Amino acid sequence: MNDAEPIEAPDILDQSIAVLELPARVHNALIADNHLTVRQLVARCAIYLQRAPNIGKVSLSLVRTALAEHGLYLKGEGPPPPAPRLPVFASLTISHRLRIIEAKLDIVVSVLSKLMPP
Fold first, then answer.
1. Neighbour tally for 27: CB within 10 Å
2. How far apart are CA 59 and CA 7, in angstroms?
3. What are 34-45's pLDDT values in tens digits?
4. Range of 92's domain?
5. How many domains is the chain partitioned into structurally?
6. Is 16 helix (H, G, I), strand (E, B) or coil?
7. pTM score
């Protein structure tokens, strides 16, 4: 029986940006702009990062990709929205749709015939 507590991996947010394994040029540019930990990096938005020297669109794309591999995103960003689901009705063939409409129309007609005197 082992009474020792399991060793937990340190939270990635508190680790150095080195864990993101970015190219040296991007890593050095982030360090020069005082982004030492992943937490400091994700606290910034893309526009802020692009204002830093040597951080352009390609570098920003690399940062986003590296963060996404760890389930993280820059401030104001997030995972892409899920693909929209088609309503069940929209996924049916036209003949099925017509049968459903006819059945509902029959119900409406029967309700109205009960409500309206002959």
1. 20
2. 34
3. 989 999 999 999
4. 86-118
5. 2
6. strand
7. 0.59
